[in-house]
Automatic annotation (TrEMBL):
<protein>
    <submittedName>
        <fullName>AraC family transcriptional regulator</fullName>
    </submittedName>
</protein>
<feature type="domain" description="HTH araC/xylS-type">
    <location>
        <begin position="170"/>
        <end position="268"/>
    </location>
</feature>
<dbReference type="Pfam" id="PF12833">
    <property type="entry name" value="HTH_18"/>
</dbReference>
<dbReference type="InterPro" id="IPR018060">
    <property type="entry name" value="HTH_AraC"/>
</dbReference>
<dbReference type="GO" id="GO:0003700">
    <property type="term" value="F:DNA-binding transcription factor activity"/>
</dbReference>
<dbReference type="GO" id="GO:0043565">
    <property type="term" value="F:sequence-specific DNA binding"/>
</dbReference>
<dbReference type="InterPro" id="IPR009057">
    <property type="entry name" value="Homeodomain-like_sf"/>
</dbReference>
<keyword id="KW-0238">DNA-binding</keyword>
<keyword id="KW-0804">Transcription</keyword>
<keyword id="KW-0805">Transcription regulation</keyword>
<dbReference type="InterPro" id="IPR020449">
    <property type="entry name" value="Tscrpt_reg_AraC-type_HTH"/>
</dbReference>
Length: 268
């Protein structure tokens, strides 16, 4: 049951039992496991916190509504926004990424907007979270530098809610989500937005950190994460379901985006 006053989770404090934790300066990565059918306290995080559900899941309650959190989903938690996770499923494991204030001060970055907690279309997994997870498990002499860079790339495009982003950047995400499994040209995008194609071509990478074509590939890969984790479908079936021409195309794109093969991700 939710209590009236939420508990603050300080740096390095998470729900569940830590299996493996790594500290890279002002960045903490960890994997946590959960007892089935238990619930967390009503809580909030002191620092920005990202999660990727490796297995299982739970129901999450926040802002008076609830949402099912399932394997393969990437999540963001803005500091101070309270939530509660209830009824953890058997075998639930979660990868966690926490960035403290000195990270943002060191690199001159702002916190990702609180709106990203409720933005289902934001590409957290393909925006770098899976590659950060890969470095967490690799943990070699170069992981610190790699994770710094990956975290900067993960956080920087996440400022899409800022006033400096023109209105068309919101509209283009809607159009691309509507056409994710259909052929989409630059001219068609421009027609929907009533913009010149050159405007999109020139400014899209500035606001999204990649080309429009790469963004579409990431959208398809994002849809593949939960299907891979379910373990019910072959990679060929997942490839077709997510809009790829065949398994080879899917495998190549998945590895390009995440740094992992689909089978490697399934086995984490």
């Amino acid at each position: 049951m939710i209590v009236n006053k939420p508990v603050q989770y300080e740096k390095g404090t998470y729900v569940g039992t830590k299996i493996k934790e790594r500290t890279f300066g002002n960045i903490i990565t960890s994997e946590t496991a959960f007892v089935p059918d238990t619930s967390s306290a009503y809580h909030y995080h002191a620092n920005p916190h990202f999660s990727h559900i490796l297995a299982g899941g739970s129901k999450e309650i926040r802002n008076g509504s609830s949402d099912i959190q399932y394997a393969g989903k990437g999540l963001y938690y803005y500091p101070g926004i309270a939530h509660q996770n209830v009824d953890y499923r058997p075998g639930t494991r979660i990868f966690n990424l926490e960035l403290d204030a000195t990270f943002f001060n060191t690199f001159g970055l702002s916190l990702p907007s609180s709106s990203l907690m409720f933005e289902n279309s934001h590409q957290l997994n393909t925006g770098g979270l899976i590659r950060i997870m890969k470095e967490h498990y690799l943990d070699d002499a170069d992981s610190r530098m790699a994770i710094d860079q990956l975290c900067i790339n993960l956080v920087h495009p996440a400022k899409e809610g800022d006033a400096c982003f023109p209105e068309w950047t919101k509209k283009i995400k809607t159009v691309m989500n509507d056409y994710w499994n259909q052929p989409l040209s630059l001219s068609l995008l421009a027609a929907h937005l009533e913009l010149h194609p050159v405007t999109i071509s020139k400014h899209f990478p500035r606001y999204f950190g990649c080309s429009a074509g790469e963004y579409m590939r990431r959208m398809k890969v994002e849809r593949a994460f939960p299907l891979i984790k379910q373990g019910k479908y072959s990679l060929t079936e997942i490839a077709y379901e997510c809009g790829f021409t065949d398994q080879a195309h899917f495998t190549k794109t998945f590895r390009h985006v995440t740094g992992l093969l689909p089978k490697q991700y399934r086995n984490i």
